[in-house]
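Example record

Each entry pairs one chain with its bound ligand, iron/sulfur cluster.
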Amino acid sequence: MNLTLRIWRQQGPQDKGRMVSYQVTDVSPDMSFLEMLDVLNERLILEGEEPVAFDHDCREGICGACSMVINGTPHGPQKMTTTCQLHMRTFSDGDTIDIEPWRAKAFPVIKDLVVNRGAFDKIIQAGGYISAPTGSAPEAHATPVPKADADAAFEAAECIGCGACVAACPNGSAMLFTAAKITHLGLMPQGQPERDSRVLDMVAAHDEAGFGGCTNAGECTPACPKGIPLATIGRLNRDFLAASRKRSGETATAG
Ligand code: SF4
Ligand code: FES
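Structure tokens for the complex follow.
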């Protein structure tokens, strides 16, 4: 396959950035999207040009690093697929492919396609710890968990923190990510002692980091490579409301 790539090039956070066109030839349909970019970068290096900076790590769809917008869609055209798992057979010979970084206020561009997703770490850190007895491993059946809860918690825990939900959201909201993190602990018995403080603190960290509010646009779930359902945000809202009421009740009593 021969392709035209139009790639966002930006020297650093202060640079305005621009789209630059590259021709790539002899692309195998069996290459992954990142392997195709590797081939382009090897050529650029040989020609004495600067390679395109992009994030990647596992290349197995589990780390969430390979963040890029392909033809206007975070992670590209294939549903439930990270960029590293996307193959060139998804495209056709002669195609022009636009490749851009995540665009969101809370994810500033570091260089080219690499953005700073440290704001996600701040939300996670605000969630803190769970109270659990330390020492030897507890007996596996000591804390029964209903199967439906275990399955739903596991589904939420599949979030890989890639940020595609933020990139897809017209408000740049990270509510799907935050809701996934709150849900996977909030459904488990081990997550109950800090359940209220966790949701209040994580939502506060979300807002402080500059993410927008959720207005139910519904763009996040279709972009999510792990299919985290929109209902997860509804669960966060219910938890948030219950915790806020309890906290304001405590304040009123203390006052
Ligand atoms: S909710 Fe989905 S899109 Fe958002 S960070 Fe998690 S895996 Fe990525
Ligand atoms: S490189 Fe790890 S999910 Fe794509």
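Residues 81 and 248 are 42 Å apart (CA to CA).
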